[in-house]
Amino acid sequence: MKHNDEQDSRIEKMLHELPQIKDTKSKDDYYRLITNDSNQNSSGRPRWLFPGIASVIAVLILAVVVPFSYYSVKEGAIDQPQSAEQHNFKLEKSKSFSSGNDLSLKTNQESTAHELQSMVVEDISSNMKPLAAVDQSVQHIVPLTVVSEKNEREGSNINTEQLGLSENILENITISIDENEDKAQVTFPNNFSVSGNAMSTSIVNSIKWSVEPYNVEEISIQTEDGSQVSLGSYGKLSSLSVIEEGSFIFKVFKPSSSDTSFFVPVSIKNESTISTALKELKKDEKDPKVDSPLPPEVTVQSAHEEGNELIVELNHPESVDKQKMLTAIESILMTAQHFGYDRVEFENTSIGKLGPYELSKTVETPKGLNPVPAEE
Amino acid sequence: MKPFFDEFYEKYHRDLFQFIYYMVKNRSAAEDLTQEVYIKVLQSYQSFDGRSSEKTWLFSIARHVTIDYFRKQGRKRKKIMDFFNWEEKGESIKDEEALPDEVAELNDRMREVYEALDQCTVDQKSVIILRYIQSMTIQETAAILQFTESKVKTTQHRGMLALKKRLGVKGDSEHEA
Q1: What is the pTM assigned to this prediction?
Q2: Fold of B1-91
Q3: CB-side neighbour CA atoms (13 Å) of A5
């Protein structure tokens, strides 16, 4: 830690010593320019006049043209904007759960064929507890958000084996979060021991993904009596690094013994941009096996940022299965969130409403992955 | 209006221009945006309710003006890209302005730090500039950016990681005990 603090201090010092950049305009120049601008704007026609007239004309044209456009889409395919209202999904953003469990998505009776499985949560609310498990072959970390029907976070347990995952490897480990200090404190039993690199790596990564939604800056680890923790090949540790922003994308893992699919983080090369990360989403992985969340019909054409917002241009996908489209959209949203974006705007989708998302508008990026119901 | 402008200019101009310059890294754009900030300030000073400090209010306007600038630049680039169909290079096209003399005269390592700022997101860059180039407190930074103090700390941490990565400085290690 001391080494890192020194590096930070060196960089902070250099930032502080960056030079003052000279301004070529004088105070009088600025005053003259701003008064000229104010005078121009206060004379003549109002600024809103032309845009206003143009908007009225555009609305009139749409009012004439839109009723005559009709898209016929095959059963189960995505809705075009005109038909978005017909299905009336009752999926709520903050109450979305994986299918195949008691709290699966509810749709109205006419649209039961369209039950959708959302694999993210909009925000970590007080009845949710992030956790991470591993698959049965100990190859994937599966971040989860355990959702309790009671309004409580603590005591929310799950049976990971019922989800087709390995037993909960963090079962005897206590994680507490100090949100004011942005710290996670992880306490291991005094007699804790672990054998094998795979298991120690899984424990370390499960802890990191369990605290990731809280945006902590430090993860301290110790045993109940305050000693360092012996973690196999890692040696004795008192802290862990946090997950680095922009280092993972999210693909689909389906355990062989379960119908539920999960987003799992897949590491990408350092220095990847969001554009390359989104292109990587298109690839299936063989070893260990994970599927691309983007179906063949969906391609990301380009991506660029505007402030905290990511603009993602798709390829006008049509006739895509709704569930596949929802998974594709959520994988893009989650990857964008991991790269630090707060919102995503989708261009060239022609899709109006899809599950909880209104894709013709800017969509907030989610904060949690793979909602699963707590055992009450 | 002149006395009011004089007072604002004397009190804040230097910091305001530095903030905008380091955000956009283009002197001429920074001057235009600074001018835009003054116009907005003079237009809306009557409605300034005093709930935040004058400085916080001014820098909030500056931040919004720079974000609008990035948004417009993004759209402009997108149009150019669409025209030439250069799909891959969307994020790598930058305004190729020569380094200002003040930066060109720096040693290599300092120039690298200057250039590494481009690796940060807009939020990270805003926090790093306010905290380290302009020496503002976490509270002041949070007020300007309308973040919680906790978000300022997290964004600052991630910004520093982005800088370290670009500068080739080895990051945190699991093996620290």
Answers
A1: 0.52
A2: Rna Polymerase Sigma Factor; Chain: A (1.10.1740)
A3: 4
